[in-house]
Specification:
Length: 180
């Protein structure tokens, strides 16, 4: 059974052209960065997202007071931070896993995976920091350290969940082999 690199497999995709391989590896990261850049604009300020999400929320859950809506919108926005940057972290981790597959092939899989995990979280924290710095210059946005921490936590949690799948998969393989 061949597992994908994000699920702990160590087989490389069958791409012989280095440019195509680079695009295959790094395009998801570039796409996620473009999403982050777009969401960092005035168009995605709290005011604009509230106008977008409130009708949907009320269609599903019924009318909501203005005070309660402010809380709901805040939770939705922070959940978006957590999940969006968690997804960015996963794309970084996939890219680092594939990029370092060959240079670290002499090392154990756990070293290769740890480096990729750490780089994914560091890259996500860097992007989150730059995003908050950018937002601090926009009149309708705020740049706060708490959002950087939340974004980095989202990356760490989602990447750690994938790491737990690696451990569970390895234990399942060991159990399966021992049962034969």
């Amino acid at each position: 059974m061949v597992r994908s690199v994000l699920l702990g497999g160590r087989t490389s995709p069958r791409i012989s052209n280095q440019i195509v391989f680079g695009i295959f590896v790094w395009l998801p990261v570039a796409l996620m960065l473009m999403v982050i850049v777009r969401e960092s604009t005035e168009a995605f300020s709290s005011f604009h997202t509230a106008r977008l999400f409130r009708p949907v929320w009320e269609a599903i859950f019924g009318p909501v007071t203005d005070a309660h809506w402010d809380e709901v919108n805040h939770v939705l926005r922070k959940s978006g931070h957590f999940l969006g940057y968690g997804t960015l972290g996963l794309t970084w981790m996939r890219a680092w896993l594939l990029t370092w597959m060959y240079p670290l092939r002499q090392r154990s899989a756990s070293v290769w995976r740890r480096w990729s995990w750490l780089m994914a979280i560091c890259c996500t924290a860097t992007v989150a920091s730059l995003d908050e710095i950018h937002q601090s210059f926009l009149p309708s946005r705020t740049g706060v350290v708490q959002d950087v921490l939340l974004d980095t936590l989202g990356s760490a949690v989602l990447c750690s969940l994938i790491s737990l799948l690696w451990v569970a998969g390895r234990q399942r393989n060991v159990t399966f082999v021992a049962a034969r």
